[in-house]
Design a protein that fits this description.
This protein is of the alpha/beta class. Helix content is 37%, strand content 22%.
Length: 218
């Protein structure tokens, strides 16, 4: 199972439910930035299911014949994450241009990085990032540890951190969101089980798990 890093908590819970319903089955989870997972699949890495945090990465593996088709199963949106207590008094996207603050973004090639830069551009802000992390959970970890004053992550990541970070909403007029897609890999060693996991994600049970994690229905 190759899945975007932002799906870590929800898909771990779904994998446990899947294993319980399919005796003798073990789900191996690999979480990373969607672009990294895309490249691994295109390079021939063994996988049964691919869940991407955007449509573009999925389209590339479909065009390469590595996934037959995909479906959108959830949406997510960005929030500014700051350490608990907001010690730097960050209050909006304009702070991402402040060279005196420690600011983090996701790398340009991963979905959260693409969305983050779109949001900043829409706000007319030229960011001054101190780091570009390979996936959203790596960025969240640095914010939670107080190594950064702020970062642009997903709403679901702020929720997953509990009290470790605080979330600041983006202005409604420049709020950006992404659609998550899932599909079975054509070279899957067990296409039936792979399809069953996709169906679990799309089912009412799967959607309830995703909604508890902060995702929105597609």
């Amino acid at each position: 199972m190759f899945a975007a890093a932002s799906l870590s908590d929800a898909f771990t819970e779904l994998a446990q439910a899947f294993e319980a319903a399919h005796e003798g089955t073990s789900v191996e989870l690999s979480f990373a930035g969607s672009s990294s997972l895309r490249e691994q699949i295109l390079a021939g890495a063994p996988a049964d299911v691919f869940a991407s945090a955007n449509v573009a990465n999925m389209d590339e593996v479909i065009e390469a014949g590595e996934v037959g088709s995909a479906t959108v199963f959830a949406t997510n949106r960005l929030q500014i994450a700051v350490p608990a207590g907001n010690p730097a008094a960050v209050d909006g996207l304009a702070d991402f241009a402040d060279p005196d603050l420690l600011i983090g973004l996701c790398a340009e090639e991963v979905p959260c990085g693409v969305l983050g830069r779109q949001a900043l551009d829409a706000a007319g802000v030229t960011p001054s990032p101190d780091t570009a992390e390979p996936d959203v959970r790596a960025l969240l970890t640095k914010v939670e540890a107080g190594e950064l004053d702020a970062g642009l992550v997903y709403v679901t990541d702020v929720l997953a951190a509990g009290g470790g970070v605080q979330g600041i909403d983006l202005p409604a007029e420049i709020d950006v969101s992404t659609s998550y897609t899932i599909g079975t890999v054509t070279g899957s060693g067990d296409a039936d089980l792979a399809a069953a996991f996709v169906e679990l994600v799309r089912s009412d049970e799967g959607q309830a798990v995703l909604e508890r994690a902060g995702f929105e229905r597609a």
